[in-house]
Amino acid sequence: MANLTVEAIELTRLYGGRAAVSDVTFSLQQGQVLGFLGPNGAGKSTTMKMLTGNLAPSAGSVKICGIDMIENPKEAKALIGYLPEMRPLYKEFTVDEYLTIAARLHNVSGKHIKKAVEHAKERCGLTHMSKRLIENLSNGYQQRVGIAQAIIHNPMVVILDEPTVGLDPIQIRDIRALIKEIGQAHSVIVSTHILPEVEMVCDHVQIIDKGKLVFNGGIDVLKQQRIGNKLLVGLRNAPAASQLAAIAGVAEVEPADGMWRIRFQDGTQPHEAIVQAAVQQGWGLYHIAPDQTSLEDVFVQLTYHETTNADEAKAA
Amino acid sequence: MLNIARKELKSMFASPMGWIILALLTFSFGTYYLNGVNNYFEVMSGSIRPAERIGVTQFVGQTVYGLASFIMLFAVPLLSMRLISEERRSQTMPFLFSAPLSISEIVVGKFLGLVVFLSILVVYIAAMLSTLNIWADIDFGYIFANSLGLLLLVSSFAALGLYFSSLTAQPIIAGILSFIALFVLMILDRFFAGDPTSTMLKFSLMRHFQSFAGGLMDTADLAYFGLFILTFITLTIRRLDADRLRG
Question: Any idea what the CATH number is for the domain that residue A139 is in?
C-alpha cells in the first residue's frame, strides 16, 4: 500500500436526512487514474466536493497523501487540483491573468509563477490564447482553461468533474492524452458519463449509484465482463441450430437479428472450428466477430442489480 | 489573504465599473473642494465676530468630508455587492474553497481588497486638501482625523456590504439590502434626535463619524468602528462556513 494519494474512509453526506453519499470507501495510489461513473444524481459530484474540501462530510474522513482534509485543510488542499462541474472562471480576466491568480492562490512561489503559467498553457494547448479574455473564448477553450487552472501548481491529486463536456473530438483526444500524462506521475480522478472514455484513460473504475459504491476495481475486470465469451456469426445458408451446437467448445446457440450468437465454454476457442465447419459445409459465412456487451450494458447491469436488491430488501 | 485582496483589486479595475466610480467620485469631490475654496472668502468676509471665523481647513474640509461620507453610502454598496454574490452566481466559489486558504482568509482578503480600493479615494481627498497648504497654513491634524474617520466609516460600510453580499447570489439584491441597512444606520440619530440619552443613538454610524469630523479621535468611536467591522466579518465567515457544512 505504498504511496496512497487519496483515501476516503466511510464518506457519508446527508442532505436533510437523505443520504446523497453513504459509506463510500476507496483509496488511490500514485500513478493511477480513477474513473468515477454513475447515473445522474448518484453522488459523483458530492463525493468530489467532499474530497476537495468544498463540502464537509457528515461522517467519515478524507486523507490526501496522509493529510486529513478536516484537520489540516490548508495542507491537504495544497496537494489537490480541482475542476468542478461548473467551470470556476473569472470571465473578466485574460487567460494569463486568470492563471497567474490561480498560481498565486495555490502558493506557487513568485519566481515560478511565470513558468507555471506557461507550462500549464502548453499542456492544455492555450499558448495562442494568452491575451484573450476568458469571456470571449469558446466553450471548449474555457474548459481547457479550467483544466489548466487545476494542474497549474503541479498537484499530487487532480480531480476533474466531467472534463470533456463540451469539447470537440480532437480536443477530447488531447485532454485524454493529457489526463494519461498527468496520471503517470500523479493521481487523477475523473468523473464522466462517457463510458468508452473510462476505458481509454482509466486504470481503475468506480461505479456509484444512489450514493453507494456498487463497483470498485481495475478496468480489466470491467473489460472482461465486457468482452465476455460470445461470438456473433452471420451465415447466409444457416444450418439448424443443433449443427452449430455440435461444434466442439460451443455451449449455446441462439438466433439474434438474422445472425447467430454463439456462447462458448470457458477456456475454449472454437473460432477456427466454426469457420472451418462453415467453409466445408457451405454455410456462407459473412460475419464473425466477438459479441461485445457494451460497457453501457455492464453499467446498467451493475446499477440495475443494485435496485433489484434494494427492492427485494424492501419486499422482505 | 493578500492574494485574494490583489485579485479583488484587479477585478475591480478589470471592469469599467471601478474606473467609473473612481472618476465620478473624484469629480464630485473636486467640485466641492473648488466651491469650498471659492466660498471661503465670501463667507468669512461676511462674518464679523471672531467666533464665526473658522480656519480654511475646517471650512473646506467640512464640505468635502460631509459630502464624502454621504456619497460613500451609495458608492460602497455598489462596489461591495459583487464581492461574494458574484462568485456564487458564476459558481467560482469552489475555485477559492479548493485553494489552500481558510475561509477567514478569503473573507478578510476580500474585505481588504475593497478597503484598499476605497482608501485610494481617502488618500486622494487628503492630498487634495493638503494642496491648500501652498497658500495657507493648514491644520494637518484635522485632515488626519477626518481621513481616519472616513476610512473607518467606509470600512464599516464595506464590512456590512460584504456580509449582505454573502447572503445572496444576486449582486443587485445584495446592493439594495446593504444600502437600506446602511441608510437606516446612518439616519438613526435623526429618528432618535428627540431623546439624546437613547441607546439607539449609539448605533448610528454617522454619530460616531461626527467626532472624527470635528477633528477629535475618541477611543470609544475607534472601538465602535472596530467592533462593527469585526462583527460583520465574523458573520460573513460564519455564513460561508455554513455553505461548506450544509452545502
Answer: 3.40.50.300
Same domain for A41 and A175, yes or no, is: yes
Instruction: Considering only the beta carbons, identify the residue of A46, A78, A86 that sits closest to B91.
Output: A86
Range of the domain at A119: 30-50+73-208
How crowded is residue A146: how many other Cβ atoms within 10 Å of its Cβ?
A: 23
Q: Which residues of B touch A92 (CB under 8 A)?
A: 11, 14-15
pLDDT band at residue A309 using 50, 70 and 90 as cut-offs: low
Check CB contact under 8 Å for A80 and B98.
yes
Write out chain B residues lying below 8 Å of A105, CB-based: 3-4, 7, 95-96, 99-101
Minimal Cβ distance to B244: which of A54, A86, A106: A54
Which H or E element spans position A232? strand A230-235
Q: Which three cell numbers stand for residue B232?
A: 460583520
Q: Which residues of A touch B15 (CB under 8 A)?
A: 92
Q: Are residues A245 and A138 in the same domain?
A: no
Largest CA distance in chain A: 77
Number of domains, chain A? 2
When CB atoms are compared, the residue of A86, A101, A105 closest to B101 is A105
The pLDDT assigned to A316 comes to: 46
For the stretch B108-150, pLDDT in tens is 999 999 999 999 999 999 999 888 888 878 888 889 999 999 9
Taking alpha carbons only, the member of B169, B160, B135 closest to residue B229 is: B160
Residue with cell 466477430: A289
Domain shared by A194 and A81, yes or no: yes
User: What percentage of chain A reaches a pLDDT higher than 70?
Assistant: 88
Cβ burial A31-50 (10 Å sphere, 16+ → b, else e): ebbbbbbbeeebbbbbbbbb
Chain B residues in contact with A75 by the CB 8 A cut-off are 100
**Whole-angstrom distance, CA of residue B211 vs CA of residue B206:** 9
Amino acid sitting at position B192: F
> CB distance A73–B102 less than 8 Å?
yes
Q: Please tell me the distance in Å from A204's CA to the nearest CA on chain B.
A: 24
Q: In angstroms, what separates the C-alpha of B103 from chain A's closest C-alpha? A: 10
Same domain, A44 and A162: yes
- Interface predicted TM-score (ipTM): 0.84
Residues A120 and A186 in one domain: yes
Are the Cβ atoms of A54 and B92 closer than 8 angstroms?
no
Looking at CA atoms only, how far is residue A285 from chain B in angstroms? 58
